[in-house]
Design a protein that fits this description.
about 280 residues; mainly beta; 14-stranded antiparallel beta barrel; 2 helices; disordered N terminus
Length: about 280
């Protein structure tokens, strides 16, 4: 009887430990398929992503929805990720690898905490190696409002006589969270981006504009539903994307997500549908 009691107590202690809100590590994985319809033909894009983050201090999730824990706690972190992409029947079968590192540091000033961001990503399609560098600077205007201005550039290693062209991109991102009654909340995010592309064989040097707006309604601390819309304008070629998503934290440390997006290119028969399943582990 004493052994059984000890075992039950130990199990209860272990469960309470895994269920505690604070965490230092975060691991993510997701898999997605995009079906692209180009009229008579179509093709599929399969992507598999793995990544993780290490936070400099324990992230406190008591301030609101679990999905916004690091945002509300003004957390600093470093992260790394890898993505494998397989394009089937789109012109030809092409595989590619993408990997990178990123980080955010929040300087905890009493007046306005400052945000510093940096990111390096390498894409390795069959025709080239492309390095992307992004640097961001922003601030917490309130405890739940941020603005970040970013600069992004690329370095292309040409091969197979294809030059995708270098880019210089600028963007501004805004985010705000409203607390509702109980553990409920609503977040709203918006961004505008401008991309300057050097003369190349694909784009002819035309500049690109992009807009995005989205929101998430957190029914409670564990469950949220989101909607978003984006437009990508490349010298008259406009692509609209409509998305919906759901996020559910089964426990404080285990989260599941599902998202769907539909894209259309104006004045063409090109459409795409994407579904992504994701999982997150925190400890």
């Amino acid at each position: 009887m004493f052994k059984k009691t000890t075992i039950v107590a130990a199990l209860g202690l272990a469960l309470s430990a895994t269920a505690q809100a604070d965490y230092r590590w975060q691991l993510d994985a997701n898999a997605g398929r995009t079906n692209i319809d180009v009229g008579r033909d179509d093709g599929d894009v399969d992507q598999f992503n793995f990544g993780g983050r290490f936070y400099f201090q324990d992230v406190d999730t008591s301030k609101g929805p679990l999905g916004e824990a690091s945002f509300l706690d003004q957390s600093s972190y470093v992260g790394a990720g890898y993505r494998y992409t397989d394009l089937d029947d789109i012109v030809e079968d092409v595989d590619g690898d993408t990997y990178g590192i990123d980080g955010r540091y929040v300087l905890p000033l009493e007046s306005i905490p400052l945000i510093f961001e940096a990111e390096w990503v390498r894409e390795t399609p069959d025709f080239s190696d492309i390095d992307f560098y992004r640097f961001g600077f922003g601030a917490y205007l309130t405890e739940s409002t941020t603005v970040v201005v970013s600069y992004r550039t690329s370095d292309v290693d040409e091969s197979n006589d294809i030059d995708p062209g270098d880019i210089d991109a600028y963007s501004i991102d805004l985010k705000h969270l409203w607390h509702l009654s109980g553990d409920a909340a609503i977040t709203l995010e918006g961004s505008y981006g401008y991309i300057n592309v050097e003369d190349n064989e694909i784009n002819d040097g035309d500049d690109i504009d992009s807009w995005n707006i989205g929101g998430t309604w957190y029914v409670n601390k564990n469950l949220g539903f989101g909607l978003d819309y984006s437009r990508f304008d490349n010298f008259g070629i406009e692509e609209d994307t409509y998305g919906a998503s759901a996020e559910w934290f089964v426990t404080d440390g285990i989260g599941l997500s599902l998202s769907y997006a539909h894209s259309e290119i104006d004045d063409t028969d090109v459409e795409s549908d994407a579904v992504v399943l994701g999982a997150e582990l925190r400890f």
